[in-house]
Amino acid sequence: MDRMILHSDINACYASIELLRHPELRGRPVAVGGEQELRHGIILAKDQMARAAGVRTGMTLWAARQQCPELTILPPDFELYYDYSRRVREIYAGFTDRCEPFGMDECWLDMTGCVGREDALRTAQEVRQRVLDATGLTVSVGVSWCKAIAKLGSDYKKPDATTVISRENWRDIVWPLPVGDLLFVGRAAQRTLGQYGVETIGQLAACKPE
């Protein structure tokens, strides 16, 4: 029997929490940035509007404002973010005791063999609804038989979505994705793979081991 793994990701975590605290900013591009008084301060998180305007995580605050002049940048409040993260994990624990956090905003839930949880899509939808009802945050959930592909699923549709990647459809969904979307393929690895003509996950899968 295949495992049933969910990967749940809080959408735009820091920025979404700040919008709960500052509802008056909804409908405007918002980001969270550190050390605003220093020239090397960077964007730590951004909401969907800021992302659509070209604001990226790691961008300097100066560059972000050049990219999106109407951007509101808020200072981080990590104590608040940790509190929300704890509350969301408590919800996950109500589904399974096999939870593996991956940073503050992401977590794998191993639902394999959980009685009454055989329907993966229904379970994922219930996870999303419980988090929304309890915290006001939305999560995107990927469902698959292994952790790496479940994580690809949670990134595949955002925000507030569920993607099931099964044995039947995984090649159609996964292989066209950029190789940098794969877990632990960072920028340096992506550049190296690019030198060998590997731009997608499918091209990587087709490579000979040597």
Written description of the protein model:
The chain has 210 residues and is α/β, with parallel strands linked by helices. Helices cover 40% and strands 16% of the residues. It has 9 helices and 8 strands. The protein has helices spanning 13-21, 48-52, 61-67, 78-93, 120-135, 147-156, 170-174, 187-195, 201-206, and strands at 5-10, 30-33, 43-46, 72-74, 99-101, 106-110, 139-144, 162-164. The strands form 2 sheets. Strands 5-6-1-7-8 form a 5-stranded mixed β-sheet. Strands 3-2-4 form a 3-stranded mixed β-sheet. α4 packs across α5 (120-135). The longest helix has 16 residues, at 78-93. It is flat and about 55 Å long. It starts with a strand and ends with a helix.
